[in-house]
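Standup notes
- HV: blocked on the assembly model, inputs below
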Amino acid sequence: MMKNILRLFVCCFVLLVFHACVKEDHYDNSKQGNYEALWRIMNEHYCFFDYKKEQLGVDWDEVHTRYASQVNEGMNNVQLFEVLCNMLAELQDGHVNLSAAFDFGRNWSFYEDYPENYNDSIAKLYLGHNYMIASGLKYVIFDDNIGYVRCETFEDGIGNGNVSSMLNVLSSCNGLIIDVRGNGGGQLTNAEKLASHFTNESILVGYVSHKTGKGRNDFSTPQAVYLDPATDGIRWQKPVVVLTNRAVYSAANDFVKCMKLCPNVTIMGDRTGGGSGMPFNSELPNGWTVRYSAVIFYDKDMQHTEFGIDPDVSLSLSGADILQKKDTYIEKARVFLSEK
Amino acid sequence: MAWMLLLSLCASGQDASGAVYITDTTGFISSLPVNKEVLHSTIVGVGWANVLDTYLSPYNYKGTDIRIQRESQRMTTLWGGRVSNQVLIDVNAAFTKNHARNLKEYAGGIRYSQGWFYNFGKGNVVNPVERSRSRFNVAAGLAASAYLGGIYIDRNGNNPAQAKADLMIDVSAMATYDMVIARHHYLWRYQVSAPLLGIAFSPAYGQSYYEMFDLKHRDHNVCFGYIGNMPSMRHRLTLDIPIRRYTIRLGYVAQFNQSTFNHLKYHTYTHDFVLGFNKYLYRK
């Protein structure tokens, strides 16, 4: 009797294990198969469908029908790539990209459709040749005793030591300009580390929510995100102006979101580019890589910043200033800080 | 069998130091207390791997696997001396590519397990050649195992890697068969293990590691694992071949580790051909 029970148990165990194989989903490396794979990856992982439907009228099911008819097995890879990129472009999301060996599919309308409001040649004149660099942050003190920090990216690691050392050098300044124009993002932790030197208390800066399943509405309960003050080094107590344009995106957009809530900070310039979804990567059967927004970062009022953050003071680069090799943004910020 | 006989020509039946050594396969002092002898074995292997982790990619990655296992076994005094103890450290690393062969994924980890096995009948799976009255021996029991590993994919993004960790109670069984050819003992060993229940780490479906480790947000990251959502099995078949006072071990290790947590699918299938040695040592 016991032997029979034991045998039965073993048989059930083995059957259960072998029946419960965890396998990859069926894939098809044809043109149609790759199209379907891309649509499905986005359908199951992309986090802004509701928002994009509300803002842009994008119906992802309708998009599938419309573009499926453009895919056939007779087309070459370049043609397929173009169709797939056109489909993704419907979402108008700078974090949505398709990468192949021969091209990088993107929709950069968030800044390409707007005035740049930044002239690199002129901005370099302000830095001169004797500027200092602390982990990618270029900084200088202007003649009117205003500190200027040029932050081009958040890709480079920023440590408390870097920021504190920089702020120590700038400590005699009456005010500080942090120029993030053209900053396309990088690591969120770098952005938050820099912002943490401009608050003395913990600030609620937003909420975060991720997908919990394949359904388009499967999201976690939004959890609060706080900006904590830097515990090591210097915390800046004087007026600060952050300069922005449409090319401020992703982690830089998050930086502006945080700085806007810090005391003594004024955001000047153009609306930021947005990009509030944290991007993940996946791939198609043919090896092309797709990037998509996967995690939603809301602001403190549970509003999206996917399409940017408005400045406190709107500015445009003046043509007359450009002719005089002056940067309207920097000049206005200097006047603003001098009057504080 | 010819190669086995050839190997046996090298086998020594006698230790130079005296009569206490048994003259056949494993060269152990059979007069010592049975719970004091410890079987140590080390094997290294190479084979192939098939890795799937849908947090990183929806598709299988396939490639080469390398494996090292360090094992020690001994009989204990528990349950009238019928219980044996096994400590197994299992390390593997897999180097794989996707279907299109344009992306690489690296997977690996270390599993430590400590198991207790009831030896049925008059058997002894630790040293069956010299300690058992039966050619065929069976033992079964439970093991506590801990795994720590990860998978890394060589493309940028916020999901370039996946951590793997679990603490499990495994059910395990082993059998030995003492095959005698020309008075030499060739010992077949087979072991199968499967996780029964425990806890495992997993991110939520679309949760980033930034949320978990920088913001300290949790979302079902410690999952209850059982045979239903971790239908895994680990097999090991080896043959101990005596050569003088040493024993080399040849074998095959197959592992089918799978899980489905938080709608994320994971598997690592590996098949390794292993080679190593084992030796009985006396424990004071």
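- HV (later): unblocked. Helices of chain B lie at 2-8, 78-81, 128-131, 209-214. Residues 1-28 of chain B have pLDDT under 50 and may be disordered.
- Next: hand off to the docking folks.
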